[in-house]
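Chapter review: from sequence to fold.
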Amino acid sequence: MRFCGSWITIFIFIFIFCSFVFHASAQFTHPFEVAALQSVKSKLVDPKKHLDNWNKDDPCTSHWNGVLCFHKLGSDGYFHVREIQLLNMNLSGTLAPEVGNFSHLEILDLMWNQLTGHIPKEIGNLSSLKLLLLNGNQFSGPLPDELGFLVNLDRLQLDENNLSGTVPKSFANMINVKHFHLNNNSLSGQLPPEFSRLPKLVHLLLDNNNLSGELPSEYSALAYLEIIQLDNNQFVGAEIPESYQNLSRLIKLSLRNCSLVGALPDLSHIPYLGFIDLSWNNFTGPIPASKLSDNVTTIEFSHNNLSGSIPESFALLPALQMLSIENNFINGSIPAGIWHNKSFNASARLLVDVRYNLLSGISGDLNPPQNVTLRLRGNPVCNQAVIQNIHPFCDSDTGGNGTFDGPSTPIPCPITACPVDQYYEPVPEAPTCFCAAPIRIGYRLKSPSFTYFPPYRAAFVSYITHTLKMDRYQLFIDSYAWEERRLRMYLKLFPDVSSDHFFNESEVRKIRHIYTTWNFSGSDIFGPYELLNFTLLGPYGSVNHGIVKSGISKSVLAGILVGAIISAVIASVLATVLIMRKKNRSRQLSRKNLSSKISIKIDGVKEFTFRELTQATSNFNCSAQVGRGGYGKVYRGRLSNGTVVAVKRAEEGSLQGKREFLTEIQHLSRLHHRNLVSLIGYCGEDGEQMLVYEFMPNGTLREWLSGKCERNLNFVMRLRIALGAAKGISYLHTEANPPIFHRDIKASNILLDTNLTAKVADFGLSHLAPVMDDEGSAPHHISTIVKGTPGYLDPEYFLTHQLTDKSDVYSLGVVFLELLTAVPPISHGKNLVREVNTAQKSGSLFGIIDSRMGTYPSECVEKFIALAVRCCQDKPDMRPCMLEVVRELENVLQLIPESMTMSDTTSLQSRSSSTTTSLTNVSKFARMPSDISGSDLTTTVMPTITPR
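The token string follows.
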């Protein structure tokens, strides 16, 4: 009775407190802006229903990983919306014009969602706006002229959308703008000369558009300009103005693939210049001999019509990482001082690529240090027998490209029992072994002034931790990889070793505020950055990001005081109740609550205890974790009988009802095919839902294609993987009872066993096919919420929400294109399907084939590409069914010569040199030049194709 009485008291106090909050909010929130919030909310659709919690009477509430809004008290006595931050929230829909009603708004951040439609011209009414961040969406149409009214704007990020039309001259009125990011759109027309009136402009990024006309000479008046990045535009016949030599603050000049002509400019007078990329143009004449800045890391003049000799001054550049002048008409000798005059430390690296020129000698000793990659192929010097040891530099187009940096390697720590249920893990670089919960951050350098990261790693760590006021060991670079000219990173921030193993709420707010408001001090070498995600797990899952900063009137202060008193009373009562409950719980934790244990008997599926799986995974140790998905974490485990398994442990947010979990187990237990990952067992004890699968020792197909594995897949291996995946999915569509639509086919869901046999995995999003009615007919689709992975999603399913078997065909077709090119389906706004279709129309299909496939029959590759393109047709009726896909792949495999199919693909060994040699003279085989990078569709083969 006393316990019930306590809860009644709590409910009474909560009712009083909520009534106070309701009236205070209704009284002090501006009604005009509340209406605008509701209108904006009604246009945004979130598949996960997150926005259902948007309360018009409490618009300051923050949710999830972002701040919904941020208020301050205006002079009129009302709270006004100051910040709207909904970063990476999977929002779709359009942005309502009412967003222009937030007269005090300073930050509008809707990055990395799926918003469509036009950018509302009403945003131009937001005179207080400082950050307009709409990049990474699907906005289309022209740029509104009205945005030019944003005279207080500091940062404009509209990149990676589908915007078209010209760049408005009115943008020259943004007199406070420093960062101008409009790259990766479809903008056309000329660059406005009026931008020379932007007195504070620092970064001008308009690469990957369809701009044309002249390069405005007036831009030389931009006194603070550090980066000009205009790659992949169509400035046909234009020259680089001589006046650009006067850009005294310029750090990076990147005009790759812009159809420019004339002579190379003399850039020796620019004191801080570090990065020059003028490749894939039509420049003529000699390379200027004047010495460039000591800061220069990258010189790319390849694929032009340059003549003359290599300047001796290049040997005087201490920070040089890349010198690329391949495919020109350069003659004379190569100055060996370029590598011999350089002082290399352990992390330094230099690529000198002079292939396919007219070079006839080497000035000085050859013998470059191990840190140097030298490429000489296609020059007369390679025929000089008197030069010893020259052949290794002439016989291959490969040998390292100087731009790939692998993931970081964590420092091992003796601690092996971090509490994984709280997402704790050892802090890799702490001065002592320490378990803590990190904040996970996705981060990308949009225009760094280097091509090789390790020499700058320490400076980067200092740059980040200095602004965050942390020690260096608190930042760990979990992984990083180059994506064209951008550097994507995944960072982990750890609390101090003297803390309670996690950041408190105010620290999380502070860190996030620094990242989302771009409060990092400027860094010349690292350039602009963007926040991709800010992930809070474990102890941070309930952190409230909202912060109210305001002047407070007496009436509001009185309300807050009353609320504080009520809150104190409630807190006291709750504390008493929680202490009592904790004592009761501590008495019960010593035994399992068997009454809530999920149990079902299925032939061939074992029921594991929680203790068995705990022992198998060393208490779910972080070192046993091999993956993570929407369902939860995946661990490698070893059962008591020695069997190695994969254990998928559902996280709290992914737990199903008991009945649903049992249904899924029954559902999975009926699936038996050599190309599907087999279910071994499950665990359904109280609070746990785990599935145990056979372990795939060769990981995912995506890992192999990304180059993370030591060996490569040749064409026959890839074809067999494609066939295996197709057979597995065909089984789901035609032989499973009932049939199944997978709904999330992608390269990371195709696993490889010891023999590289493909096995389709992860049915977390799978959906039973339509069931026949009494008359034996069934609808051909299922109407359902769109789920899946961007880039693999059937566009018809995305638009109509109607899932069919052809939706899986589309996704598998994208995987086929990945197998052929090794390119992810979406990379920096470029769509793989669109790029392949463009290459097919231009007759350049073989130019995008992954060079690591080695020798292959051109006829077979053509048929494989044709099948993949058919699978990726926009209209489902144009795609083959899975049975047709299997049949066509089998036909292609039969066309492979026996000399290739006899190779031992189960050994994972690289292709033998004898096999390669025996095939080189067979005319019907095509072998593409190995300098063609499968990870970049625009760098070497198709300069006329503008990436998106």
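Two observations follow directly from the output. The longest helix spans residues 554-588. The chain has a mean pLDDT of 77.
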